[in-house]
Amino acid sequence: MGFSYNILVILGDCMEGYVMGNERYEQLLDYLDQKRDWVAARDLARYFGVSGRQIRSYVAAINRSSETQPLIDSSNKGYRLSRAPVPGRRRLSEDSLPILPAQRSEHIITALLRSPGGCNVFDLAESLFISVPTLENDLGKIRRDTAGYGLTLRRNRETVVLEGNERDKRRFLKECLFQGGWEKVRTEPHPFFTQDFNDSSVRASIKRIFSEHSVFVNDYALDDLLLHMFIVVQRVRSGCCIEEIPTCPSEPDSRYLYAIKDLSEYLQTTFSLSFGPLELHDLELVLSQNTSILDPSIITPQNLKQYVEQEYIEAARYIVEQVKEHYLVNGFSDDFFVKFTLHLKNLFIRSSKNLTAKNPLKDKIKWTYPLIHDISVFIADILDHRFGLHIDEDEIGYIAFHLCTCLYGMNQEPVTATFIYANYYDYHQKTVELLEKYFEGSLAVKFTVSIHDYIPTACHSDLIISTVGSRLPKPCIVINPFPLKQDFEQIRNQVEEISRLKKYAFFHQKFLQFFAPQCFICNRTDQNPQDLIRTMCRNAIDLGFARETFTQEVLRRERMSNTAFHEVAVPHAMSQHVNRSFISVSVNRPPVRWSESAPAVKLVLMIGVHQDDRRIFSRIFDFLVEILSAAGNVALLEKAASFEEFTGLIGEMAGNVSWD
């Protein structure tokens, strides 16, 4: 790295313990070294995505590391590396280092939680190397975030204080840590925590205690429990204990009592703590939220009633029937029904105690399996309207997890085959078994017939596979009586080609019919998602495609869980409110910020499905996702200036996309 390498050696361990700052200083020094000339402060600020004030803070911190000559020169021209740096250094305290923008919120929240009496805004701004107005902007966002947890961020002259009960503060902190990445918190320094919480050791001890008392926990729930323990240890150690009696007090299940006793003793002994009765009650609530005293491996459809009340079984059965009717899907196995019913019971119990389970996979499931996630939102709507149970995105994600076990690949229509053989001691049956096992899900042997009994008009299938080298209708593949590697490869290539052609035919025969030139919009306004949806719905209603109720139903679906994934949004209603099926398109310039957690949306494809087309809705949905998820496709489609250009690009993409 040339000249700047020597400077970094000089800086050495002066930035030890502050990884993010060290990285940014290295980047600044390296950038100045490459320029080897004066660089204006505004250019540096633009390059690093920070303010000019922060650039000055970085330079000041770097120069303070030298006991003699500054390492970076400054003038009215900007900044450059010193021509003759003198070796010398001194350690910078972590408190004197500037905080990067992405880290400010967690530092502010940490300061507020550690100071029950509040923080001085001027001292807080100075410690963060930002101006008071910048701090006020940060506090505004934190104020909005905390309001959803029953907390109030109150300003009294120069002091700002976070008011609320301890349970709500812990809930808020848990959400902040979860959103910031629990894995990162467990492995990297964090301003809120000391580093004596050995994750592996605590995890092993909890699992041992649960095993001794026959308490069952899955790995996702165990992670949630560890995060809670992490927070409890730090808060109690700081003297912040729960003092509020719960609004719905309950007696611990007797089967949990010994596990709670051993777990609390372990935590108090290991971390030198003392739990009061309300802390123990809170521990019982968390255990009931994340664990089960039922061993799911021994529960079957035959003995389900011995473990689960009839009301939950009936609720699960009703939900499954509604999904079958609405989405026209099957494949719900007995194993799925048992586990889904157990999950449903736990869901109702958690809700009765005002508890939720965090789900680290909720976004990944939503973006990877959007149709299954959509079915989960449909189930959430049933739970809300029929059973009065409102669930959040985390719980919707867990329902999707269950659905994936039986509905994954539900739209993968297998290629059908006729297997033709020369009969000899029924050895052909072994070959058919091998083929079905090898190509499970992608190939279905529809007919098995000897060469002498084969009648082409009676055996309609996509492909013929034969062990007899006779003249047969195409497409036909002749293989060895006992298939070799090259036989499997030959069949696979043919299956993939037939599957591609079938989907491409579906694209031209069905998919394109959903589009209409009148439903194509080049959106150049700075609308929010709700207003854009209203505009698109109004257009569809005016064209006679949708009914007046369509708008409120699309917005209701969006409120339950936004339909954005990657840089695309696919708003739609959960029930039919249209006169004909359609797909309305909005190409957004500039992109629309759909939600805080999703990227800005460049394309909106709003779907309206008529009753007569319900059977193909899932295929349409999956088809869109496959095209729009392919790398680079959204970037091409967002440049389309007309309906004809847009559908032309979609056609090209449908021909090129991999359908595996």
TrEMBL record:
Domain PRD: 307-413
Record-annotated PTS EIIA type-2 domain positions: 513-653
Gene3D superfamilies: Mannitol-specific EII, Chain A, PRD domain, Winged helix-like DNA-binding domain superfamily/Winged helix DNA-binding domain
Cited Pfam families: Mga, PRD, PTS_EIIA_2
Keyword Repressor tagged: no
Keywords in alphabetical order: Activator, Repeat, Transcription, Transcription regulation
Any one biological process term the GO annotation gives: regulation of DNA-templated transcription
Name of the protein this chain belongs to: Transcription antiterminator
